Amino acid sequence: MNQILSDNQIRQFIHDGYIRLNKAFPRELADEGRAILWKDTGCDPHDMSIWTKPVIRLGDYAQEPFNKAVNTPILHRAFDQLIGKGRWVPRNSLGSFVIRFPGNEEPGDTGWHVDASYAEQQSADFISWRINIQSTGRSLLMLFLFSDVSKSDAPTLIRKGSHLDVARILYTTGKKGMSFMALAEQLSITANRQKLMATGEAGTIYLCHPFLVHAGQPHHGKIPRFLAQPPLFPAEEFQLERNDSNYSPAEMAVRLALGR
Q: 260 exposed, middle or buried (CB, 10 Å; 0-12, 13-18, 19+)?
């Protein structure tokens, strides 16, 4: 297999829970995608007076610039290295987008959390979004930067190494796992972890372990931030005991957390 990630990057993913890929997709695709997104926000990129909301969330996007951005050869090779060849499902879209606008209003969505990965129907009118140790429904958390993101532009905050703490929490709950909110209530255990800002130029991608703790933040810059945060879907769940010991780095991280 043609390796795109270095041994150091693999080690960083296992121990810190993320890697950053610069120029993972062309800036031209980011520019084309952003033009589509601007139209759907109902805002004018040249008229700040109508940027009245701190955050706008938009639905699934599968147009050409988004499809191409998530299917670059570099990215596919990185998926093979982090998750395992044949163990992930190719995407044709980039899921939802979070667009953060400059301003003083609190967005109300800046709590530390782990993204839920699967839904459980608990009653006729209630669905519980959950996370478990097998990471059912999610192989990676991915952050696609469709605009330049500096420290002032509301970059996603990451707690380095927090995926190890989360793995230990989830292990105690087995296959059933935990609800999004129940897990969020236990994440104070990660508060002393070093914080990283997911900055970079348009075309940058952060590939993160699905258990990585992260948070949004208010925008104190000048240019709206455009970010996609799709999951990489699994072809199979994480396996922590393989007969052939052919563990992916994502599985190695969980095993490391559990002392295996």
A: exposed
